[in-house]
User: What shape does this take?
Amino acid sequence: MRRGRRGRAGLALELTRRIGDTEAMGEQGDLLARTRAVYAALNRREFDAVTAAFGETSTWDVSRWGLGTHAGLEAIRRFLEDWFGSLDAYEVHIEELETLGGGVVQGVVTQVARQAGGRGVLRVRSAPVFVWVDGRIAAVTLYPDIEEGRAAGLRAAGPSSQTSVQLHDAIVAAIRARDVPAHLLAPDFSMEVRATPATDYHYHGAPGLREWTSDLFEAFGPNAEYRVEEVIAAGAGFVVAMFAVVGRAVGSGEPLELRWPGVMWFRDGYATRAVGYGSRVEALAAVGLR
Assistant: This one.
């Protein structure tokens, strides 16, 4: 141990004082406050306070940045000292921070740094995922790709109605933007349209979702909006919702709307199947809620 270090118990108490009295807050608010406190200590280069939030076997994973994975308190401390030792200035700006359940905190941050002896300022945006266990950070992983980080956070949180809805929202947002969220789809992902016997189509994988999106919008002009009008039911592994596409028909320019109920299923943080039905009753029956 280096000389001058304070005891871990004292450091933990100091960290607790700095984030304030969070006992009256719910667990999620408490984890947000603790995570913000870690970033505040990092900005002050108070590495004792930072490592006090970690456990003996915790990991700090920056391998996606080519900086390795650091396991254990000493390794995390060495990484922080080496990294900050190469910088004249460093600060983290938190853009987003939310709890996903299961002790998982997910965020979007921008790191602003200047290397020692350098003149330029480096700005790096990333999506960190923290996993808290028994009041300590068991793991933190930094993702260069924001959407990959969000998806990883949802997977780490495990199955729940909350994570199902958040995954569902992310996929809907991508389709609305005419994108295909391949990173959120299981390898065996499939889609079916059962609205009528004449529309009993099947699509498979990310190419299938792209084909379905093209088929869906082909009758609409360029400004058509795809949206969820109602989440009818959600559970650990599924979302039942009412979907709509609203816009104007190609050619005539007349108002055109499509509405249908559908179900999307999830496993291990990925969408595995989606089905459009002819009625709410059929959609609810598909998840055993009829």
Q: What stands out?
A: The chain has two domains: 8-157, 161-286. Residues 1-6, 16-25 have pLDDT under 50 and may be disordered. The longest strand covers residues 87-101.
